[in-house]
Amino acid sequence: MYLVESKGGAIFCMLLALFFLGTWPALLTFLERRGRLPQHTYLDYTITNLLAAVIIAFTFGEIGESTAEKPNFLIQLSQVNWPSVLFAMAGGVVLSLGNLSTQYAWAFVGLSVTEVITASITVVIGTTLNYFLDDRINKAEILFPGVGCFLIAVCLASGLHASNAKDNKAKLSALEFCKIDESRDSKVPLSKETKSIAVGKDLENAVEKTEKAKVGTADFLLEIENRRSIKVFGKSTFVGLGITFFAGLCFSLFSPAFNLATNDQWDTLKEGVPHLSVYTAFFWFSVSCFVIAVILNVSFLYHPVLNLPRSSFKDYLSDWNGRQWALLAGLLCGFGNGLQFMGGQAAGYAAADAVQALPLVSTFWGVLLFGEYRRSSRRTYILLNSMLFMFIVAVGVLMASSGHRK
Q1: Residue 29 in contact with residue 362, Cβ under 8 Å?
Q2: 402 in helix, strand or coil?
Q3: Where does residue 382 rank: exposed (0-12), middle (13-18), buried (19+ CB within 10 A)?
Q4: Taking a C-beta distance cutoff of 8 angstroms, is the pair 313, 301 a contact?
């Protein structure tokens, strides 16, 4: 099998993973804002997420001659290594719960803030655990100041969300009309520009509207609210932040669990049984991620949360609206996680947590594609720039702490 052994190769894997892991959330957010049910999107996503792990296992995991110390993927499947397999599967479970939570958090808090908070919690908790599990191969005097910078970024992100929510409330407070969304039994305010649109008509395709709403305006916010699948107007800010922090706690545990699966620091394997390779561990990791995602999302089809409409498995199979983007998101996430683990096995999983810089990529997509923070207050812009600056500093410091696993 192929192993990444050089520090340069590990950094390349982490940079590529950074782009993949920062892009796939934008695709799922895009679909939610166009009205596709998150249950449908996530079921598509999880299929290709597992497919990515299978592709990695049968390519990188089968390259070269197999040895007793470093057996290839198929050989390891028949070995008695269940303690390590269970660690890998536990990591997949918490990652699946975290990813499932974030697709609801994106609607409430926004793509940028959600990714910053979850990534920062992951670094604060997960990196600390990985540092001790990796026998301290990373430089503590550099690593932990970087962790502190991530913690500051969390505080700034929370302030940014509160400021942006206040800005949006001020924009909407000037609206004079209200429309009833008959399918949801919920009230949605209408502006003077949009009051002529008929009840129940898709604002994206409405012919009555002569010109498109400007990004960042109240009309723009209303168009998104009427079109999106998760309705957020009137919901408490703490709902979104609560979901976000729960997702962050889940994310903080999957990397340490994977670390235990591949390096067996607790000596759970019998003598003579080789450690799981990254590719075998990632396969079992993705299998458990797939199983949990299918169970939860199929149940959410018939028993939806957050006042989403009820669906069915038949409706899911016939829903082809944007399916290609959901499938692409699963591939990006799968290959991104695989590259992160390949780099972490070489340079230390604590340093590999530098891929949590993914909010830098997500914020770019959030501003470019979704108009986040457009026409906001000066205070919001200051908080946004401060958050991104602190995040860049934190990532740079974390990368500088990279070690080399012997």
Answers
A1: no
A2: coil
A3: middle
A4: yes
Report the alpha-carbon distance of residue 240 to residue 359 in Å, rounded: 17
Query: For residue 224, what are the CA distances in angstroms to 107, 111, 172, 239, 245?
Result: 10, 14, 13, 19, 24
What span, in angstroms and rounded, lies between the C-alpha atoms of 278 and 15? Answer: 18
- Rg of the chain, C-alpha, whole Å: 22
Specify the DSSP element, H or E, that contains 346.
helix 323-347
In angstroms, the CA 371 to CA 172 distance is 16
- The dihedral region occupied by 264, where left means phi > 0, alpha psi between -120 and 50, and beta the remainder, is left
Residue 389 has pLDDT above 50, yes or no: yes
Structure tokens at 359: 């909010």
Most confidently predicted of 50-59, 133-142, 368-377: 50-59
Half-sphere exposure of 268 (CA within 13 A, CB side): 17
Cβ atoms of 229 and 38 closer than 8 Å: yes
pTM for the model: 0.77
Can you tell me whether residue 274 is helix, strand or coil?
coil
One-letter amino acid for residue 230 of the chain: I
Which segment of 70-84, 325-339, 354-368 scores lowest on mean pLDDT? 354-368
How far is it, in rounded angstroms, from Cα 176 to Cα 77? Answer: 64
- Residue 234, Cβ density class (10 Å: 0-12 exposed, 13-18 middle, ≥19 buried): exposed
Q: Please calculate the CA angle 147-153-155 and round it to the nearest 5 degrees.
A: 115
pLDDT band at 129 (very low <50, low <70, confident <90, very high): confident
228-237, 274-283, 309-318: least confidently modelled range = 228-237
Of residues 227 and 341, the one with the higher pLDDT is: 341
pLDDT of residue 237: 65
Q: What is the DSSP string of 167-214?
A: HHHHHHTT--EEEEETTTTEEEEE-TTTTTSPTT--TTT-SS--SPPP
Beta bridge partners of 190: 177
Distance CA 4, CA 60 (A): 10
